[in-house]
């Protein structure tokens, strides 16, 4: 059967997948939310379970079922999780760790993650079937690439790998069909090969693509829902990537603006009224926040529908117009809240300052000759974010934003597999060994067996790179390396020194 690569970008705010067939250039993804008047390339990272913890819905379906079809008392019985990706950041989660749902009750984190991945897997296989005249694809026909934040610990990455196995993407006997890639690298892999037309505006004059000029340094700023990741890559010989710097800012992404909006409402309606609304009408609050998140696409004035029960609770205390008296940036407009452009900009302020500080932090490093700043991620499409970066840094650097900014990670993930020939994939794997072993050595207590394994890996890599020249034995060695490395759950990453050594040795 034709081989297919499927990338999954499990985001804080939005999750999506893309797929491509080996040998074909096209990378596709579904549209989400059309039945609700939306048309987005990813769907909200939101999962709903019934009162018995059985999976019900994911994405827009979960939000809509929870906010529009669930009565107040029933909503409290359901298990709704959103923004849960960050549960894996900075915490030590194990297979039995629990996570708290919106109703305050707990569920196994592994189940929440694996059911989310299972939903994506089933949706993807179904979609692929539609593109192949009904030929049925199963999970084992695909190579899966799961992207994870670069700042995650090895334990968090391992947790995702286990969730993917529990979701049925791969089986324990075939772990090599799962590649865990870092989000900034995937985004970079996508952007560096884009032609001029792939970017919204800005000029890419020196070359047709960034990757064509060896030595070009560029910064990828991934503006997501939760985090802002800034990475500097250099195009090394043969189009490979060299990571020069990386910084991340947690809680600076698009959801920070949503949180600021919520604080503003609490200020306007008073803590007492808003807390009561939040406590008793979680589904209405969810819908309000969702409506507001759409407003972030615009600059200037925006209108947000005020939920019925918030109005009712507020009116019990005083006339609703009185809450807005003397406030020139938020007005009451018969059932809607009118936010001024100044206020909307102010809600973006701390995110934008955060992005500015992260970019500056990197630009202060010496010996960098950065030419481009590439803005990716959904929040990069915000007119405030996009406008700010162009205004602040546009005179010195070429600021480019891909047309499909929010898909850069997931498309890069697919391209990563489609474009990397067998040999190149091996290079990536070898590259990783070094990083992996170091992480492993620093995070585990070691038995003699572990030490022997490291020595084995090093010896084989050494043989592979420097000694084996004939094809047959080279293949045997790579298969052996595969076996060892994949069984140790290697994370794909670029570690420049070893990577280049491999490139040079293999090109000999
Ligand atoms: N057109 C747009 N204009 C402004 N903001 C947008 C737009 N599209 C998406 N966003 C915002 O971008 C954020 C989501 O971006 P993205 O999908 O890249 O995040 P993510 O991958 O889920 O998060 P992370 O990378 O932090 O895990 C949300 O806060 C969303 O409201
Ligand atoms: Mg992201």
TrEMBL record:
Signal peptide (from-to): none
The keyword Transport is annotated on this UniProt entry: no
Classification via InterPro entries: ATPase_NBD, Hsp_70_fam
This protein's UniProt keywords: ATP-binding, Membrane, Nucleotide-binding, Transmembrane, Transmembrane helix
Gene Ontology molecular function, alphabetical: ATP binding; ATP-dependent protein folding chaperone
Positions of transmembrane segments: 451-468
Protein name per the record: Heat shock 70 kDa protein 12A
Species this protein is from: Pygocentrus nattereri
Organism ancestry: Eukaryota, Metazoa, Chordata, Craniata, Vertebrata
């Amino acid at each position: 059967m034709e081989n297919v690569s499927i990338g999954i970008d499990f985001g804080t705010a939005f999750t999506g997948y893309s797929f491509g067939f080996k040998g074909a250039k096209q990378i596709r993804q579904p549209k989400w939310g059309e039945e609700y008047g939306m048309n987005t390339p990813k769907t909200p990272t939101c999962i709903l379970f019934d009162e018995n913890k059985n999976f019900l819905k994911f994405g827009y379906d979960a939000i809509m079922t929870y906010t529009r079809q669930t009565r107040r008392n029933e909503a409290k019985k359901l298990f709704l999780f959103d923004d849960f990706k960050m549960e894996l950041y900075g915490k030590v989660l194990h297979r039995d760790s629990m996570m708290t749902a919106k109703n305050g009750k707990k569920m196994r984190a592994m189940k929440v993650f694996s059911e989310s991945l299972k939903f994506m897997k089933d949706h993807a296989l179904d979609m692929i079937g539609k593109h192949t005249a009904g030929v049925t694809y199963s999970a084992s026909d695909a190579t899966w690439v799961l992207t994870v934040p670069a700042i995650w610990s090895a334990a968090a990455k391992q947790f995702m790998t286990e969730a993917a196995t529990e979701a049925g993407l791969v089986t324990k006997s075939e772990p090599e069909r799962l590649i865990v890639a870092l989000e900034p690298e995937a985004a970079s892999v996508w952007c560096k090969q884009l032609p001029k037309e792939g970017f919204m505006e800005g000029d890419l004059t020196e070359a047709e693509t960034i990757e064509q000029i060896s030595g070009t340094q560029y910064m990828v700023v991934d503006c997501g829902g939760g985090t802002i990741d800034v990475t500097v890559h250099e195009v090394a010989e043969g189009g490979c990537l060299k990571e020069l710097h990386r910084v991340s800012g947690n809680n600076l992404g698009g959801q920070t603006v949503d949180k600021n909006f919520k604080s503003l409402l609490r200020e306007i309606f008073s803590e007492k009224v808003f807390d009561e609304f939040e406590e008793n009408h979680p589904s209405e609050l969810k819908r309000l926040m969702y409506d507001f998140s759409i407003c972030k696409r615009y600059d200037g004035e925006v209108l947000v529908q005020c939920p019925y029960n918030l109005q009712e609770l507020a009116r019990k205390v005083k006339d609703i117009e009185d809450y807005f008296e003397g406030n020139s940036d938020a007005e009451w407009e018969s059932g809607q809240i009118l936010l001024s452009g100044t206020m909307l900009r102010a809600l973006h302020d701390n995110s934008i300052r955060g992005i500015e500080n992260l970019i500056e932090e990197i630009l202060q490093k010496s010996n960098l000759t950065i030419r481009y700043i590439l803005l990716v991620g959904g929040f990069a499409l915000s007119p405030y974010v996009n406008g700010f970066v162009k205004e602040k840094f546009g005179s010195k650097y070429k600021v480019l934003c891909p047309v499909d900014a929010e898909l850069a990670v997931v498309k890069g993930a697919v391209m990563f597999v489609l474009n990397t020939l067998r040999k190149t994939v091996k290079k990536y794997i070898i590259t990783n060994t070094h990083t992996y072993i170091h992480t492993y050595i620093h995070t585990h207590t070691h038995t003699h067996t572990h030490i022997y394994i490291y020595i084995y890996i090093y010896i084989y890599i050494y043989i592979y790179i420097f000694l084996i020249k004939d094809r047959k034995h080279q293949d045997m060695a790579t298969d052996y390396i595969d076996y060892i490395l994949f069984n140790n759950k290697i994370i794909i990453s670029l570690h420049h020194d070893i990577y280049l050594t491999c490139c040079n040795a293999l090109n000999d």
